Each structure stands twice: as C-alpha cells, then as structure tokens.
Amino acid sequence: MEGTALTKHLRISPRKMRRVAELVRGKGTEEAITILHFTRKNAATLIEKTVRSAVANIMFVKPGTDSHNLYIKEIFVDGGPMLKRGRAGSMGRRSMIRKRTSHITVVVAEKA
After folding, report:
1. What is the CA angle 80-52-59, rounded to 5?
2. Is the pLDDT assigned to residue 1 strictly greater than 90?
3. N or C: less crowded end of the chain, CB within 10 Å?
C-alpha cells in the first residue's frame, strides 16, 4: 500500500528543493521528519509538510498502519510555471528575470 502527497506552485526554485530532497530519499518517515525539522533550509519546511501529508494519506486509506513501519519510496521535485519579470538591461533593453516555482511529489510505502 502506498500513500502519495503532491504540493504544487511553491515559490522556491526546484534546484534548491532537490538539494534537500536528496537528504531524505529512501529513509524511514520518522527519521526523515526529524532530519527535515533540523535542516536549516527554507525548502526543508515545505518538504516536511508534504511528507507529513503523505503519511496522513496512507493512514486514512489504511487505518491501523504503524507510522514507524513506513519509508519514503519516492520523492521528486519538478519545475512549475515561471513568473516572468523584467528589469533594465544593457543598451536600453529589457532583461528577463525568471522566478521559478516547484512541484513536490512524495510517495510513502510500508516496509515489506
């Protein structure tokens, strides 16, 4: 049995999110939440919230599941739509500023 959580349109770049996601990939959910809680990156709070949501989803679908028996099967970060802004560039032109967004997907499963 698997539980999935998806968080979309987060205003942080996928590159920054992926650095934090690497810390918890394949770990148990209790250990992952502890690691994320004490990681000093803004992305850690967003990923922690998504992991907690995935655990809650699997507990809702299959009541009586022990949270100590769960692990993060998959976690990946995709790029979302970019907010395109501009500023003055050289020779009177406009240069683009791309404010990137992220989508996080977390899949939690039971240990065999």
Report:
1. 120
2. no
3. C
Domains detected in the chain: 2-110 (3.90.470.10)
Token pair for 107: 């899949």
Name the region of 75 (left: φ>0; alpha: ψ -120 to 50; beta: rest): beta
Report pTM: 0.90
Angle, helices 29-37/42-61, rounded to nearest 10 degrees? 150
Closest alpha carbon to 45 in 11, 78, 79, 4: 11
* Lookup: tokens for 103: 């989508």
What's the rounded Cα separation, in Å, for the pair 89 and 67? 53
Q: What are the tens digits of pLDDT across the range 5-62?
A: 999 999 999 999 999 999 999 999 999 999 999 999 999 999 999 999 999 999 999 8
In three-state secondary structure terms, 66 is coil
